Structures are given as structure tokens and as C-alpha cells.
Amino acid sequence: MYNYLIRRIIYLIPVMLIVVTFVFFMVHLIPGDPAAVMAGTDATVEEVEEMRHLLGLNRPIYEQYYLYVVRLLQGDLGKSLFLERSVTLIIAERLEPTLMLTAFSMFIAVLIGIPAGIIAGVHPNMWSDKCTMVVAMIGLSIPNFWLGLNLIYFFSLQLKLFPPGNY
């Protein structure tokens, strides 16, 4: 087991390097100028050039890539174009409610899943086993985003039990 984990971690390194490289070059291949977008529609040529300098877009591509990787390793994910704040801080603000929601969801899944699995395993090919399998297959077949949106709609907008946003 220990060797398996070490091997998987070693395999993770080239995969992460490939993904980081892919994301970097895809962002650079997108049409448009990020500096012009960040500077705004009313920006002068000088303001756009200043923004390019601040973002490091006036440097050679290999230097941009190096700085990108170094900043990622330091946890610097840059500045949000829309919120104009550090992406790392935005993620940190939303980490606690995300972890709470994840823990609660896992608790509910274990609370329902283990007893259902035990009942289905004790009575194979009986109605309880078949019902458990049908519910499990339906649960696995429904896309998470679709189920989530419908649950928000039902519990927040129809029943008004929860606020629809802003946790």
C-alpha cells in the first residue's frame, strides 16, 4: 500500500506539470488582451501598456511561464478580474462554508448509505436489495449540478426554507 501511494504521488508530478502548462498556454491563446480588459474600455494606450507591465505580459513567454509556476507554488493565484481582489483570499473566505457543506453531505451519505448497504447485503435479491440498487443507480445517474439547482429552487424559492444564496 505504501509503495502504491508513493508511485501515485510520483505520477502526480508530471500530470500536474502538464496541466499547469496546458492552462498557461490556453490562457495565452485566447483572443483578446487581458491588460485591455483589466484597464477598462475607456483606457488610453499608456494605461493598457502600464497594465501589461504590471501583469508581466510585456516579458518573454518563457519568463511569464516561470513566474506563473513560481507564483502557483507560493500560493499566489493572482487577482480576480471581476472582484479585483486576491483569488487566494476569495478562496480562503469560502473555504469554511465549503468544508462544512462537504462534511455535512458526507455525514448524510454515510448515515443513509451504510444502513442501506447492510440491509441490501443481508437480504440479497430481495425487494430491499433491489430498491437500494434502483435508488443508487438513480442517484448516480442524475448530474450533480442539475440536482443542486433543482434542490435550491425547491427548498429556497418554493418552500422558502433556506436563503437562495450568500450562505
UniProtKB/TrEMBL annotation:
UniProt-annotated location(s): Cell membrane
Keywords: Cell membrane, Membrane, Transmembrane, Transmembrane helix, Transport
InterPro entries registered for this protein in UniProt: BPD_transp_1_N, MetI-like, MetI-like_sf
Any GO CC annotation of this UniProt entry: plasma membrane
Record field: transmembrane: 9-30, 99-122, 134-155
Main location: membrane
Residues in ABC transmembrane type-1 domain copies: 95-167
GO BP terms: transmembrane transport
Membrane topology qualifier: Multi-pass membrane protein
Family annotation (Gene3D superfamilies): MetI-like
Annotated protein name in UniProt: ABC transmembrane type-1 domain-containing protein
